[in-house]
Amino acid sequence: xxxxxxxxxxxxxxxxxxxxxxxxxxxxxxKKAAPGVSTxxxxxxx
Length: 46
Prior knowledge:
Number of helices: 2
Radius of gyration: 18 Å
Shape: rod-shaped
Largest sheet: none
Number of strands: 0
Structural class: mainly alpha
Mean pLDDT: 83
Helix content: over 70%
């Protein structure tokens, strides 16, 4: 039986965290830059 590659799992988890953190940072910047303008998913409908 093959042993699990924990370093790969750890790296994958860290990349997911980094991606999520970056998305959160961008969202905050967008919100800060245009507080009165509706952006995001609903912005396309309006």
